């Protein structure tokens, strides 16, 4: 894979354009250090960049590269991952989403896939991981096809911002917006981008029927989005509990085993146990009783596939904290960082977007409440 750093002048003109090829040819096959040091060398040689664009040409899964920026502290000190951009071909998208995954590429670098009988389709994976999507070649499809493509994108990843394009002509801000450096305004921009993505997911969340075991059904390798919102009455009481919850979800994949009472739940009624919502439900309730859980003929918890998370992000409200905490995660790698001060008490809320497969909204929501918001 090539790295292509471009320094952009104030008027948007390119000041430099340099290609660097990694010695063993491919960033995804390189050790993480090699990829990281390649960027560091470029930075040393050329000085500080405003933006670095990494094109994962020929690589189906951007996950391992995205995760690299949260693992290496040296890179994190000078670079931060702003976001993941995908270009979707409107003409071929539906066909690509329906293809069987190629085992040669989709499982590469993702330990989560190794033991899976069925890998996740590459096109699904790229849409699932993206923060921003350029929906290109819109001139070549009918309005009906375009609507179907948009529906598919929304079901897979309702948090991504989608822009329609012909020949990929989009404002440069759409590509570079929110690029982080340590300028406080840029951080504000990055948090604003995250907030808008969360808002987008809350209003555009796809609704699809849960399977008998409560997991979300979706045609696209089973990948879908769950958006969770917990208002100020449900603050995260301790950050270590949040870490424990997210680690059970991302690393151990045992939430369904830890909370079998929520894992077999089928969502049918507004029987919320907390002042919280997700994209299947918008009702509110009180108390923390779980006595009204709906049980249907559901497979034993042990037989359920664990939730497999591709992308996680959000803003967390920790009790009495004057600043937001931001969550960014790709596959099993995640990072929690302090964000901006809360603007006012009305805005205090935890909003999480989880993109992955075999998602169980009830299990996600109730386990979060039990582990993070309950003494
Ligand atoms: N009509 C139309 N043609 C386009 C558009 N975008 C690209 N093309 C044309 O489609 C052809 C193939 O271009 P792309 O699909 O962008 O090719 P590519 O990105 O190299 O393809 P992959 O990286 O292999 O997916 C070229 O002739 C482009 O000029 C578009 O929005 N509308």
From TrEMBL:
CDD domains cross-referenced by the UniProt entry: CobW-like
Coiled coil: none
Gene Ontology molecular function: GTP binding; hydrolase activity
Keywords of the record: Chaperone, GTP-binding, Hydrolase, Nucleotide-binding, Zinc
Record flagged with keyword Chaperone: yes
GO cellular component: cytoplasm
Annotated CobW C-terminal domain residues: 299-370
Similarity annotation: Belongs to the SIMIBI class G3E GTPase family. ZNG1 subfamily.
Protein name per UniProt: COBW domain-containing protein, variant 2
Annotated organism of origin: Capsaspora owczarzaki (strain ATCC 30864)
Organism lineage string: Eukaryota, Filasterea, Capsaspora
